[in-house]
Design a protein that fits this description.
Elements (H helix, E strand, L loop, with lengths): L2 H4 L8 H8 L4 H13 L1
Helix pairs in contact: 2-3
Length: about 40
């Protein structure tokens, strides 16, 4: 999976943009998962 799959019309978003886009109480979980995706 690549960034263009998640955000096809954008360049790679920042953590803040991703968190804002997802929002909600699960934001920290999403940030953790996204960071894991960046490492692999």
């Amino acid at each position: 999976m690549e960034w263009k799959d998640l955000f096809p019309e954008h360049k790679q978003p920042t953590m803040a943009e991703i968190s804002e886009y997802i929002g909600g109480s699960s934001k920290e979980l999403w940030v953790f998962l996204i960071r894991g995706m960046e490492i692999t």
